[in-house]
Amino acid sequence: MTAEVGATRAEEIRAGIRESWAVGLGLIPLGLAFGVLMTQSGFAWWWTPIFSLMIFAGSMEFLAIGLVTAGVGPLSAALTTFLVNFRHVFYGLTFPRSQIKSKLGRVYSTYGLIDEAYAIVSARPPGKISGTRLLTIQILCQSLWVIPGIVGALLGENFLQGLRGAEFALTALFIVLAWESFRTNPDWSLPLMAIALSVLSAWVLPKQMMVAGLTLYVGFLLLRYWMPRVDRAFEWRGKKHGARGALGETVVEYPNADEGERK
């Protein structure tokens, strides 16, 4: 059944803007920081919209600056991109692109699928969104990233040449994301293993530390997901928190239940 029966296209566009503006505003400071960092890394300002339109992957755009300036090969860059954005594979399985009637619109929706758009749409009941509203949400999110990026690049090239610290924006972003993820699933084994594998990768493969560390950590998560006993062996959290698996799934344990009766 088509969502929002009887609603006009203009109403759906306005509704999409209302639903996404609060989340989208959070993209503005990140876009500004990205634009400033681009020019401080030696790129002309016009490279900023090229990166944002061709890559459009948030944190991966920040990483791409380092990959390009370091001369990383295409294979390593592709593997890094795959590992960083691997979660998007699962986003696509439930994102309601089928609500979009035009083929071009569905192609854009696939390209424009980012964390923020997925979070906004997934908060709605399944099947309760129109294609027009869905595309409005995605276009607005991209606009609130690309336009501030251009503004930041122009400011960085013309007025902020001596500004220091913009290169720390990616580090700060990942610290915040890591903290929010840890609050959702407070398993100490996850950040400690990430640190241990990073140190190991830096020692064994210093020139490929990022790719090696990400590969090892994803392998560690998959091992815990496929082998529940290994997952329980590594799990380390406070007593007040309910048990969760490595990927965040809840594990409810009953005091008098046998192993096979746990959910």
Automatic annotation (TrEMBL):
It is found in: Cell membrane. InterPro entries: Brnchd-chn_aa_trnsp_permease. It is a multi-pass membrane protein. The chain crosses the membrane at residues 21-47, 62-84, 134-155, 161-179, 188-205, 211-227. GO terms for cellular component: plasma membrane. One of its GO terms (biological process) is L-valine transmembrane transport. Keywords: Cell membrane, Membrane, Transmembrane, Transmembrane helix, Transport. The keyword Transport applies. It holds the Pfam family AzlC. It comes from the Bacteria. Belongs to the AzlC family. This is 4-azaleucine resistance probable transporter AzlC.
